[in-house]
Every structure is written in structure tokens, then in C-alpha cells.
Amino acid sequence: MRTILASAALMATLMATTSLARAETLTIATVNNSDMIIMQELSSKWEEETGNQLDWVVLEENVLRQRVTTDIATGGGQFDVITIGSYEAPIWGAQGWLVPLDDLGDDYAYDDIFESVRAGLSNDGTLYAVPFYAESSFTFYRKDLFDEAGIEMPEQPTYDQIEEYAAKLHDPANELYGVCLRGKPGWGENMAFVTTMVNVYGGAWFDMEWNPLLTSEPWKEAVTEYVHLLNDYGPPGAASNGHNENRALFASGNCAMWVDATSAAGFIFNPDESTVADKTAFTLAPKQVTEKGAGWFWSWALGIPSSSGKADAAKSFLKWATSQDYVRLVGEEKGWISAPPGTRKSTYEIAEYTEAAPFAGFVEQAMKAADPSDATAVEVPYTGIQYVAIPEFQGIGTAVGQNVAAALTGQTSVEQALETSQAATERTMKQAGYPK
Predict the structure, then answer these.
(1) Domains parsed from the chain with CATH numbers
(2) Confidence of residue 18 (pLDDT cuts 50, 70, 90)
(3) Which of 14, 130, 203, 291 lies at a CB distance of 3.0 to 4.6 Å from 198, suitable for a disulfide?
């Protein structure tokens, strides 16, 4: 009997030891957006369920991209889970830098993810990142201020109208600014917005021979209007304001209009976070000579670097954090208006969510309609709405973003900023061997 009991005790000890040995600590790099902060707050539930731990590295968007890009390109192995988007996932997947994610199980409900989102995170049919939330862009505006001024916002304003409305509502003496737009330099910050402006002014990044078009008339007109809007009707220090800074300004009642990500709606319409939750309305992102490419397409997603030695535990976390159950968890714990938008069809079948989120139907349609393969009025050799889906664009977009920011702050003229950008982009494309 003693032998049996001793054997049982030994087996229990071995099982406990094995369980502890299998527990992993994952290092996760993520962006400091509100949805990701919620994920961090709720992740203790996954840790309790699995025995694993998460070590969080939460960074500002530009810093995140720099750190993650450097680590994954060098195989540094610093991170086990990374927050990336629909630009990086297919490119890095093709390079072999990411672990394929087609094996999370039938209960993961891959078919529930919007087709456009799934395609944007795949390369050659293989999924390399799973979407945490997805977004287009639209125009937030203060309905109360528009009513007081006798202005009726159209279904899709032009930039000429945005300027007209901004001029009427701009009241800097009372810290109310006519329009807030991204000014912080970066391919995913100011250039995400500026590229959509170039689109609707009839322009594009490249022609069919991969020649840069940055000194073309659409670029000159779009960037000139952008600089004019922010310098005349924007907040002070606009060149330092990215998505998060503008979101805080709008939520505090300092912006009459804001053109930015639909994903911010969950924050702006949440009375616990926003002072203008009951005063805000929204409409389509502005057009000008065309409406093509006005609203961007993006998905913040989670991926696993191939350099991580903890892929199994990382897949467990990715499955948990991007599942149907997680959407419900956020709704129940943080309020339905905060549920991650734009990724799963089933989210838009939840009555509590559609009742709480006045923007739900708009975002659903935007995700279904997004077409990065047809986003410009002219024919182009690339896909992408607010970015160009080639490896070189990360460097090109960031350099051009810095030049545009210099024009915004008056360090250079719009013409000189675009000429400098054109020359630099020509050199980059030539060195990369375009046209290929």
C-alpha cells in the first residue's frame, strides 16, 4: 500500500512539475491604442486559464513599428507576440518572418472574419496574423455646433466644404478648433491621412511604371489644402498630433471636426471616456474630385515572429484575444460600445452591440466594401488605400511624412517638401530595382 501511495505521490509531483515546466512567459509588443489597453487589462483571465504569463511592452505607434520591424528583420527574438497590421502581415509572411496561423482550430471560426480583413492579413492564401480590430476612416463632427451654426453636414462632404465649415466653427480663443487631422510624421500617422487626400484629389503614389508622382498636381493640391486646414483652423502644435492626441482633443470638446479611424468611435461615443459622447455625429470621409480611396482600410492584428520559441503558447493567446468569446467578454466587462469592431460578422449580430454602437452598421458596410485593389482614380501597379503594399513603402512613407510635417511647421514650402520627397523616392525605387 505504501508503495502504491508513494508512486501516486510521485506521479502527482511529476505532473505538477511538468505543468509548471510548460508554463511560458510571453513578451508581447503592442500599440497604446484604447482597444489594446483593454486587451492588456483583460489578459489576466487568459493567464489564469493557462498558467502562462504575459510581459507587456506597450509603445506609441511609430516606436512600436520601429522596434518590431528591427527585431523581426534581424531575427532578434525579443518578442513572442507582435501587434502588426495589414501592411506588414502579407509582406513579412512572404519573407518567412511570421508563423502561419491557419491551425487555430475549427472552433476559431475563420469564416466569421470578414473576407477583406482575412485577405489583408494573408499571403498566397496563408493567414499570417489574426485581426484584433479593423477600421476604415470617417468624419466625426460636433452635431451641436453644426446645429447652432445652421450647417447641415452632407452624406459625404468635399474638402472645400470641410474648409468652409472649419472657418465658421473655428474659435481658438475658447480652445475650439475647426478641424483636427493627423500631423505627426510617419507612414501610418500623417501619411495614412494625407494619402487618402491625394486619392480623392485624383492622385496616386506611382504610375504604372513605378515612377513616383509626388510632384504631380493632385499631390500639390492635396498637401497645400492639408497644410492650409491645419495652419488656419487646426489646434496649436498640429505636427505633434497623431491618432491618440487628436482622439483626446476631440473627446475633450476641442475639435469641431475630426477625420480619422472608425475604431475611435467606441471611445468617442463612450460617456465614461468622452465629454462629447452625446454631441457627436459622423459621416463619410471627405471626397474632392473623386470619392475613390476616401476611407482607408486597416486592421491591427496579432502575429508570432518565426524567431519565437514559444509558438504554441503564443497561438493560445492569439486564439483567445481575437475570438468571438473575447468580443463578448469585452462587451460584458467594459461595455458593449467598447467591443473590438470591424473583424467578425458575428459581432454585428449581437443586439447589445448594435444597440450600444450607433456607428456599427456603418463600420460593417465599410469593412465589406473595402477594396485596396481599386482605391485610386488612375491606374496603379500597387494595392493599398492609405499605403502602398511593397516592402520599400515603410521607409518611403516615413521620409515623405517627415517632409510633409516640415511643410506644416513652415520649415519648408509644400513645393520644396514634395520635390525633396520625389527625389528621395526615385532613388529608393531605383536602388530597389523597380520596375520589376
Answers:
(1) 2-135+297-357 (3.40.190.10), 137-296+372-431 (3.40.190.10)
(2) very low
(3) 203
